[in-house]
Amino acid sequence: MRGSVLATLGAPLEGGDATALISEPPQAPTPNCLFDYGLVSNLHTAALISRFGSIDWACMPYFSYPSVFARLLDVERGGSHLICPREASSSHQRYLPGTNVLETLFLLEGGRALKVIDFMPFVESVDRKPHPHLFRIVSAEGGPVPIHVRFHPRFEYGRHPASYLKVPDGHIARHEPSSLFYRVSQGTTEERGPALETDVLVEPHTSAEVEISWMEEGPCRESARKLFDRTVRFWRAWSEGTQVPAEFVPPDTRLAVERSNLLLKALTSRESGAFVAAATTSLPEWPGGGRNWDYRYSWIRDAAFSANALILSGHLHEAKAFLRWAVRCSQESHDGSLQVVYRLQGTGALTEEEIPELSGFLGSRPVRIGNGAGAQFQLDIYGTILNLAFTMKDVDERYIAEEWTHFRTLVEHVLRIWREPDQGIWEIRGPPRHYVHSKLMAWVALDRGAQLARRFGTSGEAVRWGAEAARVRHAILEQGYDSALGAFVQAFDRRVLDAATLKIPLYGLLPFSDERVTGTIRAIERGLCDGAFVYRYRADDGIDGPEGAFLLCSFWLVECLARSGEIARARRNWDELLTAGSPLGLFSEEYDPRTRTPLGNYPQAFTHIGVIRAAHALGLAEKEARRLAMDRAHSHPE
Fold first, then answer.
1. What predicted TM-score, i.e. pTM, was given to this entire model?
2. Domain 5-227 = CATH 3.90.1070
3. CA-based, 20 to 30 A from 461: which of 29, 115, 177, 309?
4. What are all long-range contacts of 515-521, with beta carbons under 8 Å and residues at least 24 apart?
5. Where do the structural domains in the chain lie, given as residue ranges?
């Protein structure tokens, strides 16, 4: 493991031994570690770029559209774009501060270095639709560096190779109906087998530029340098636009929080305001296993969590945009019901299918697109929306008042359905159950609805919904707690531990001082933890194979410990969890603490939500501890 992310952000990699010029065109190593990747985004789609200079994952023009580069899931068939020195080198990556602009630095012998800047600018086509561009600016320092550039797209998840057409400004790679424009500013680009290849000698004080653009509109009308400057300004203006006082985030957590905020923004749809859960599909929850899911869509629950986390950092525009989108989704149904997960473009069910042509990351099959969870009933999603509306009421009262009719419909829908079993937050592919977390979120929906009704609705609604919330609370306390375990359990009829019950005090069903809460925290530490790393549950869920520790749950535990006043223990867990991040500060969904391996889709919004919330909980707890210490000092002066 590379150590704490905060210790490695922007730090130079240890130099490697360089040797003579490589005679054969170099290749990037086979993908085997997610920590080798950074992400760039234009708020419509994203690309994963390795520290070896290879774009190994990109879908265009949107997050959930078919891939044009998928080497991450199959080295031979996936397709990629490579820029790297023709000499041996060591390499590392960093983000330009306050941005999602990625820099890869190759260190060579003789004190020379090659720098590759990757970014996706915000450009619209003439018909106002997104026109994705991916720019790569290459420069040398300390002396000339020979480089190799290889463009090898494969369309439709690697199913179709490209044919190439030479045009005045570059090349068109196509397989109807898809096409990419491609341009290298220096050297001669030749078609060699299935790829376009270019060799360039990059001199100091000059740069070579690569442009990859969706569709056949030709080169971008603006220079790469101008687009680079504008992209950097956009990200820095957004990152610096936080309105939350810095005192609420401990100084040593601010880099992690900033990177998490930037990652959540990168996974935002600029058109709709919704958030995707991740930019990738089928990265396994265990190497070689079958728990490989497509997360390139917007889960109502995950997206509401993202919006709430961004509110903590003062990014209110994103939270409001998502809430507007969710309300529009609820208006599409006759009863205000919501789907679990939505496409960001297009309509229809998210049919889950397998792509047998791709071998999978680390040989993990099947590779899936679509997601069967879209057909599930998950009760908890309504509570996440109404809790977000409740949070928003103090920062945009007018908006909540304008949309009150639709929020009322959601509360009434929960009142009718909360007694039904569901698949739960973990989307378990077994029989529906009365999951404790689902009932908790039904209580949240009714409780927050009742409180909102006192301001925006009627006293009758407030009383009726409040009474129903009390009934849900009673059911949870009577049927969801096991006195023998001394903890809340996964479901009314399943007496096993579940890390989702850590949310009970976080949503305020019970105070942190309640012995049932403290008992649950201790039971989870004994039964579901490996150090600071928390597993969701240890029970059959209808899917074969193991999985890693779930990082969001691990940060929930930090939040619970901090808010319980156990600051030292929360700090120890926080420090250990940060070692599960990449040198860029990016986190996967899961993690194996024994082999120190990131698992699951990457980077994962869920985990970065946990980072933000845990940091804020630490900040508030430490601020309160300082206040109490000062009060004691003033009360008992020496």
1. 0.94
2. no
3. 309
4. 516/477, 516/481, 516/486, 516/487, 516/488, 518/564, 519/486, 519/487, 520/486, 520/487, 520/488, 521/557, 521/560, 521/561, 521/564
5. 5-227
